[in-house]
Amino acid sequence: MRNLKFVGWLPLLIAGLAALTHADAPITAEQQAAFTPQVVLDELMAGNARFVSGQSTERDLTARIVQSAAGQSPKAVILSCLDSRVPVEKVFDVSIGDIFVGRNAGNVSNADQLGSIEFATAVAGAKLVMVLGHTSCGAVAGAIAGAELGNLTQLLSKIRPAVNAVEGYLAEERTSDNSDFVNAVADRNVAQTITRIRTDSSVLAELENNGDILIVGAGYDLQTGRVILLQ
Length: 231
Ligand SMILES: [Zn+2]
Prior knowledge:
By secondary structure, the chain is an alpha/beta fold. The chain has helices spanning 2-24, 29-34, 37-52, 61-68, 88-91, 111-123, 138-145, 152-157, 160-165, 179-200, 202-209, and strands spanning 76-81, 99-104, 128-134, 214-220, 227-230.
């Protein structure tokens, strides 16, 4: 009787494990080709919802290493701030082989980042380009405060136009201590980076115009873990 019960459960167990394994496997080239940019965006936002609610996928990373070693077909490329509190793969509940991530303090555009995003999309087939800023960004606060330090000075100078572009604050409110202003500049900086992607990369502009990729901006909330898409 005990054996019969075990035999009854065995197929369910195998099916469950197979489903888990399938759900967690790296994206194949065929799956990547079938994705639309909007589906990729929807999946990333669903992954963020799992992350926020503590329902992140349990993964066998050792298996992932083996499964992904032969090649990669990531679905998205995300240009994120450097901040240690924005672990991009975790934020979207994705894993090895799922997304490209480019990072620098303040998620600014430059030729090397553009070349990387061009590779990720035009060569490697990613369907979504996301620029991801976040609340309480130190790089943004530094740009507002006019901080200067070595090579950081020229990086922060790229954020300055976003500082100047934000309206609706009195002169005394436009400080790095004002979190509302810092967060408004962070959002504006994301929009500015997207503009630069479109104007400085004809490759990416053409992919977007053809509907092959979406380029979107988003902000990560350090308080909640939630990603908010920016218009
Ligand atoms: Zn930051």
